[in-house]
UniProtKB/TrEMBL annotation:
Xref: SUPFAM superfamilies: CheY-like (SSF52172), Homeodomain-like (SSF46689)
Transmembrane segments: none
Species of the source: Paenibacillus selenitireducens
Keyword vocabulary terms for this entry: DNA-binding, Phosphoprotein, Transcription, Transcription regulation
The organism's taxonomic lineage, starting at the top: Bacteria, Bacillati, Bacillota, Bacilli, Bacillales
Protein name: DNA-binding response regulator
Amino acid sequence: MFKIMLIDDDVPMLKFLQQMMDWDQLSLSLVGSAYSSVMALQIFNEMLPDIVISDIELPHKDGIELGIEFKRIKPSVRIIFISCHEEFTYAKRALALNADDYLIKDELTVVQLEQSLMKAIKAMETSVDQSEELSYREQFQRNYDMFKHSFYLKLKDGASPQILLEYAKQLDIHWEHASFMSAVGYLSISSSLQKYGYRDIPLLRYGIYNIAQELARTYEGITVFHVYDHCTFILNYRHSLAFNPHHYVQIYLEKLQENCELYLKVQLRFLIFSNNVELEAMNTALHHMQGDKFAGYYHKDLIHMVESSETKPISSPANAARQQRLSEMVTAIQAGQREQVMALLDQVIQTTASDTLDPAEFIAEYSSTLRYLEMQSTKLNVDERYYAVLESTRHIEDTETLLRLKLEDLLESPRSSSASKARDSKLQEIDQYLLQHLSENVTSVDVAQHLFLNPSYFSRYFKRMTDENFTDYVHRFKMKAAMQMMEYPNETIEMISIKLGYSDRTYFTKVFKKYVDMTPGEYKSKLIQ
């Protein structure tokens, strides 16, 4: 028996629809009725109906917007729209949503509605049949990247050659020869930031993987794996004097570089490892490759050949000079001395490169310092996406570019200091008031009255204290609360927007994107990942 749900803000019409049909006779179970978009979303999330009959003209969120949300939650849901007006615009939008029918209320009859319902039921039954007929191969292709990543993990964990070759065969990877060699490719952050933002880096990396994978189809023996912040390339080849595997891989990487510059306008950096191993030893080779991830950190060439005898960067405890330079930089940032900050950064980069210090230590040292400084500023929150990109840099130019970006950001941000304790105390009182009135539309007049201050004076005082107007401050505060609420799976975006006093979800999404640089849906997806 299929489940059906009714939505109409006209309560008499809703009751009329409930009584209009013998639902059981049509093998339908009426699981819910709603007279608002908020209630409709709650019921839909709980009951996940198979068919929805909805009015189009609803307050806050119209029926078509609701339909889009329903399709996102349950793509197989069938939707029948009803409306008082025979407007082409509505009909066109309903058609774009692949609705089963668009009915006019004044012309609605039992026969007409029954025909629409039978059409929806038939579509669902056909869909079920087609789903059951999906071949294993079709399902496999949908999850190919996931299976391929699983194969890479087995390879890295040292599974037996027999298991690996069987798994490879299922993935249409044909490793027919005894010899293997590997390489890795990283996105050049400094080149990509000329055209993109650092928030685009994960998407760019996946785009590079797709280009690399497509190109590998024309280079026999090369398999590409997408591993978080880089691509790993494995060449399977027949060892002979007539074939130079390093040259072959280099030609492939140069072509990949050319394609990425053409299609994405970015550069890559590559490390080619001078290993010639059998399948049994590939796990060891991959672990060594992971350990040598900074092998090209101080080299200028885009394609670097890593020799087994190559000198590793020096790991050294923080000395007095380094600590003094870091302390001077923090002081200069807090004082807003831009020229001094950038001069110190130049010295840091020059010293780090000349001494070939351990890149992991260098990055960690400055990452933690920048986090501290950012937490002291009046920003909304620490942007973990920036630090994820910073900590994934594999060349000193990329690290330097990202450090300059964040230092410029910090120099432009209002800074806190020991002289601002009174301001902090007043802000805490304001924050406490906002927390107690989260679901309300709090204005500067409300807070001014709470603090027994003149509203005009409070507005000027608040602007001087925070370097932003009160409305922006409230939105930032509420978006921070929204981000915390989204960490709980049961909290829907609709419910969060209502709890924070945004009755219109579209407006809530607009505000969220303005202050967090992504939509609520994108942020929730990031949390799940």
